[in-house]
Amino acid sequence: MVHVQLEDLGTTLCFDLDDLPEPAPRAYWLSALKVADAEGWLPQSGWNASVKSTIPQQAGASSSTALVVAWCALIAARSGRSVNAEWVARAAHRAEVAYFNEPGGQMDHFACALGGVHCFAFEPHFEAFIMPVPSGSWLLLDSLQPKDTLTLLHRAKAERVQLLEAWSHTWRLTSSAVPPPFPEFFDAKQRALMKGTLELRDISERGSDALRSLPTEPTSWGPLLTQHHRLLRDVLHVSTDRIEAILNASEMAGAWGGKINGSGGGGTCFVVGHNDVIDHVQKAAENAGAHAIPIALGGIGVEVFYQD
After folding, report:
1. What does the alpha-carbon distance between residue 147 and residue 262 come to, in Å, rounded to a whole number?
2. Could you give the CA distance from residue 107 to residue 114 in angstroms, rounded to a whole number?
3. Per-residue pLDDT reduced to its tens digit, 82-103
């Protein structure tokens, strides 16, 4: 038997390793055990687990992914498997996304598993480029508005993927090649959506180049966060009035830049600013309705500790 004490929620889960039922949607504890069973890394004896977290839940801050990454690492370690961060990331993606056929990628899983600051590439093969830790003080700002992740991901991603498949027979969005003309059957809304998607790609590439060549002035990369957010707001329509108020207040208080987290529709955003002004930024964000959490970039990824 596996007993999982969820201390933040005041509940306990129990699983029989010899009789694992089919998990309900998003029952990641169980889906990870089912994946481990199917792939041969399920432990042969049970254990007791205790879970704590300071990550805002249902807020676009990868709380579920961080949990599944840690859970898969623990399952694998208890089965005697050598725990490699890249393997754990892929296993967690199979348990959280692929098992339920959800519309998520692998970036969050690798970010949680590897830690640090990275630029990830998934095509034509996976690569993780280690990036310098950028300067400044960072705040994760919880709008305290829960979000419907799956609905938003379907809405923000599904149509774009369909349009890209119709458009990208001779090029890839991940390349810097000049794209071909839009297909004639694209209407004005579809053209605007694809144009915005290309602009999001270009801003991400410019930001990656700026951070890769640190130390650079924050004025060269901070505003790119805000530009990226405005495209997410205006093209994909994933922001909210509360998040707009929080980001605007932070910018007025001296933040270098900031943007919404995750798929949007509520949840969290983040901002960065000079150490001398971050207290003013935090107060301004809190006055706009945010719960502010100071964060430090470049932390460690998943680890398994053994105690006698």
Report:
1. 10
2. 11
3. 889 999 999 999 999 999 998 7
